[in-house]
Design goal:
The protein has about 290 residues and is of the alpha/beta class. The chain is built from seven helices and ten strands. It has a six-stranded mixed beta sheet with strand order 4-1-5-10-6-9, with helices on both faces. A hairpin with a 2-residue loop joins strand 7 and strand 8. The longest helix has 30 residues.
Length: about 290
């Protein structure tokens, strides 16, 4: 067979196949060869401008400011538990109720200003929660949550989280890179420093903040002894993004487990939530009083 005949067949056969398929109303699948390089990314929608919440309490900026953060919200319900009667318990509702009660407790005692990252069922992006505390110049940040143990109903009790040392160092480097020429941290100027020096300054600032957060965590355990039920590991540390503000002491309080019957009974009643709010508010007041004496 000649080369000319081969070339004719090479072009004629595909044309005949395509022509026949078209005549019969058939569609031939298109090969995907060579298309493996295509990458698709789902882009997050642009965030709306950050709107700072109202500050309640004395109209005096010298008074300490506490930012209370009710976790989750909006389309994010958080942990969900269900009782034997089929009643569903959503973390976002419980923690908001506790945060509102804490605000009442703190304002009633007087001398303290309070702001909430959310006062209703809305979703506040995780990174914006500590940023709200920073922009308001808060003295303390307390994030309220409720835990879940999946199918293990025997796990229960409250616990208090502070930022781990490893997470603190990592956050310090990232913050210094992002905010190198931004502002001050705990009175120390970070602007115009090299990235390495900024990271050191931020890490020193966070070391002080972690010490303050540990003091508050200890006070919560002390004030809650005999009043609320704690998890066997009542004090924990973790790489929690919501606690990574380098100049605002913060703790995350897991108020209990929605998957535990005893915790659900406590968290679902106003009396149980009021007890939790009272313990947390008293620990905060003692912490702020001690800071004022320094």
């Amino acid at each position: 067979m000649s080369v000319r005949t081969l070339l004719l067949l090479l072009f004629a056969v595909p044309l005949l196949v395509l022509g026949g398929a078209a005549a019969l109303g058939k569609e031939l699948p298109v090969p995907q060869w060579g298309r493996d390089y295509v990458q698709r990314f789902v882009l997050e929608p642009a965030l709306e401008p950050l709107e700072l919440p109202d500050v309640a309490g004395p109209d005096d900026p010298s008074r300490p400011l506490v930012v209370l953060d009710a976790g989750h919200g909006g389309r994010d319900p958080g942990s969900v538990g269900e009782g034997e009667d089929g009643e569903r318990m959503r973390e976002k509702d419980i923690v908001l109720a506790i945060a509102l009660l804490m605000r009442e407790e703190l304002l009633e005692a007087g001398g303290i200003r309070v702001a909430l990252t959310r006062e209703d069922d809305r979703l506040v992006p995780l990174g914006r929660r500590p940023e709200i505390a920073r922009l308001l110049g808060a003295d303390l940040f307390v994030s309220i949550h409720a835990d879940s143990a999946g199918r293990r109903e025997d796990v229960g009790g409250a616990s208090i989280y502070t930022l781990s040392n490893e997470a603190s160092s990592e956050a310090a480097a990232r913050f210094a890179a992002r905010e190198n020429a931004a502002d001050r941290l705990n009175g120390v100027r970070v602007a115009d420093q090299s990235e390495e020096v900024s990271a050191i300054l931020v890490e020193l600032s966070q070391a002080r903040v972690q010490e303050d957060a540990a003091q508050l965590a200890s006070l919560i355990v002390r004030e809650g002894e005999g009043r609320i039920r704690f998890h066997p590991q009542r004090r924990r540390s973790a790489a929690l993004a919501v606690l990574r503000a380098p100049d605002v002491p913060g703790v995350l309080v897991e108020t209990g487990f929605v998957t535990n019957e005893a915790d659900r009974a406590r968290l679902m009643t106003r009396e149980g939530r009021e007890e939790l709010a009272a313990v947390l508010a008293r620990a905060i007041r003692i912490y702020l009083a001690r800071r004022a004496e320094v």
